Every structure is written in C-alpha cells, then in structure tokens.
Automatic annotation (TrEMBL):
Lineage of the species this protein comes from: Bacteria, Bacillati, Actinomycetota, Actinomycetes, Micrococcales
Superkingdom of this protein's organism: Bacteria
Entry-linked InterPro entries: GIY-YIG_endonuc, GIY-YIG_endonuc_sf
Protein name: GIY-YIG catalytic domain-containing protein
N-terminal signal peptide: none
Domain GIY-YIG: 180-269
Pfam families referenced in this protein's UniProt entry, alphabetically: GIY-YIG
Length: 270
C-alpha cells in the first residue's frame, strides 16, 4: 500500500481537520501588488513573507483559515516539495487587495522540510483542506543533509537533541567524533542549575557513555534516576585521546567537581 500524506501529518501531531495545505509556485507578481513573488533562489524569509499575505477575495482564500498551514513549493507539473509548516494566529490587516496574517514557523514536520515530495493531482489548485490532501501520494523523501559537527567545545545538547543525534543519519559525523575521545562531561538540570560531572574512560568513549543517557535517561547514575531528563543539557568539559591514562581523567573529573561545586550544591555524591 502506497504511503500518503495523511499518516505523516498525524505522526507530526497535525490534525488534518485543523490544517490547510498550500502549494506555492514560482511566479513574478505584478509591480502594483507590492510583492516580490517567488523564484528558485527565494530565501526562507522571502517565502515566509509571501505566505503571510493572501488575496482578500474570499473565493481565493478562506475567510477563517485553519490554525496550521502545511506549505509546499511546486516542483514539476504534478509534484510539490515541503517548504515548512506555519502556525496562523489570525489576520492583522486587510487593505481590500491583500490580507496579512500573523504566522510563525512551527516545528511540525521540521525533519521533512525540503525532503518530502508529494504528488499534486489538480495542477490549478494551490490550496485545500488537509483532509483532502491527506490522500495525496508520497513520491519520495530525500536523505537528510548532513549537519556539520560544531566542535567539542561548542557542543551543547538537550536530552531530546541527544536522542536525535544518536539516531539520525545526518548526525553521523557527530557520533564519529564522540567515538574518538574519552573525557569529562557535564549534565546541567536547567530547572535549578545543578550540575552533574561525569567521565568516560578506559574502553568507554563519550559516544558510548552518552548513548546510555539517550537510551535509559539516567545512564545508571543514582542521582539522576528520579529526575525528568527533558530539562537536562549535555556538554563537554574536557576531552582526551583514548590512550590517556585513567588517572589523568580522574584528576580532571575531580577538578571540575570542585570548580563547579557539584558535590555540595550539585548532583554528584562523590
């Protein structure tokens, strides 16, 4: 059975009954419209601005549009590629020609932006209720673009981001980098600012240690077991070559526990 748009909407937490699907096409606007139109090199900001301005004609655009807009860009004669999903908070202006809406980028389907391509059956139709578009076939989902590793000293991840990094192909270089080092790391509980200082040494590298947190939330640490990991933030304090003696890593770990006072006022027990 062919995959359609409907299950992807539901999986992203979008109720098709509360969503509008829009397909933009590359076109130049008439100068008197005041709009720049769209072209192949339009930026995200330009497409966003184009999206928030719609015709004042009730026949062209719904009087009370849905709160979620799933926006595609025309590709070929009968296909469309996902640009983004935006949330609509209502109309802010109507000059009789255009209606301007307050919209904001949404994280719905963010992992499918510029990757999801669907078939678009009626070529002259540019917007419809998502309940109708839900039956449109998924033509393809392109591989995600790799995300460059930011460097050990710039790495800061929430627990959700940690899980994503350990799972998705686009973070392959991150996992490779973390597999190449041992060292001392910090977990901050952002609700109260308390720190936990830990280490990965011996046969266990940083990737292996952090994968434990991604898998079971607490990594086996007694201090972290009762806490909600959604408020955790992971970062690296110091990395070492895997050949570094364990004693040197122990000294560094102890230093950071003292410096951050993570025994008395943090989450370390020793």
């Amino acid at each position: 059975m062919a995959l359609t748009l409907g299950p992807l909407l539901l999986d992203a937490g979008i109720d098709p009954g509360q969503a509008l699907v829009v397909r933009h096409a590359f076109a130049q606007e008439a100068p008197e419209s005041g709009l720049a139109g769209l072209h192949a090199d339009s930026t995200h900001a330009e497409i966003f601005e184009y999206t928030r301005r719609q015709s004042a004609s009730a026949r062209s655009f719904p009087t009370a549009p849905s709160p979620i807009w799933v926006v595609f860009i025309k590709e070929g004669g009968d296909q469309a590629r996902l640009w983004s999903v935006v949330e609509c908070y209502g109309e802010v202006e109507d000059n009789g020609i255009f209606r301007t809406f307050h919209i904001a980028d949404s994280e719905h389907m963010a992992d499918l932006r510029n990757r999801l391509v669907i078939g678009w059956k009626p070529p002259r139709t540019w917007r419809m209720n998502a309940t109708t578009a839900a039956s449109y076939p998924v033509v393809g989902i392109a591989d995600a673009e790799p995300i460059p590793f930011p460097g050990f000293d710039r790495l800061v991840l929430s627990h959700v981001q940690l899980q994503t990094m350990m799972r998705e192909h686009r973070y392959a270089s991150w996992r490779t980098a973390l597999s190449s080092v041992v060292g001392v790391y910090m977990i901050t509980d952002t609700r109260d600012g308390r720190h936990y200082v830990g280490k990965a040494d011996g046969l266990e590298n940083i990737r292996q240690r952090w994968n434990a947190y991604a898998t079971n939330r607490h990594g086996g640490n007694v201090e972290l077991r009762p806490l909600d990991p959604t408020s955790f933030r992971f970062s690296l304090l110091r990395v070492f070559d895997p050949s570094t003696p364990t004693r040197d890593i122990d000294i560094a770990e102890s230093h950071f526990k003292d410096a951050l006072d993570s025994r008395r006022h943090g989450l370390n027990r020793n």
